[in-house]
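Following the same procedure, sequence and fold were stored together, as reproduced here.

>
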Amino acid sequence: MTLNLIAEVLVACLLVATIITCFVLTKRIERLKADEAGMRQTVGALITATDNAERAIAGLKSTLGDCDRTLEERLRTAERYAADLAAQVEAGQAVMERIGQIVSAATLVGAKAAPVEAPPAPAPVSRLESAAQSAAAIRARAARRLEEQAA
């Protein structure tokens, strides 16, 4: 009977140890389930953030394409304006050269036409000189503008 009692006490101790172990394992499983719920929330938040980022990237790509097209169009327009302006500056320089030639010719003609005995008339000479000075000033201004555009 003592052997039976010892065996039953041993079985009872093992049952108590089993119950304690089961209790500890149950607590661990509950913690794992709580961690699993937290991980599910974290994964859900990451998926949402990824979707938002993908949509933002698509929007940025679209905006970048629009900006690229706009910039391209503006560059083409600027190149056309620059070419037109260069042509106008060249035409202006040609006009200035012709005006200079006309003023030079007028000055020579005025000097030859004036009689030797009579003093030259101040009004026409001064007008010619004034026109020549104006033409030179316009030519210098056009040259400066051309240099500024080239820079």
In short: The helical segments are 2-113, 122-150. The longest helix spans residues 2-113. The mean pLDDT is 84.
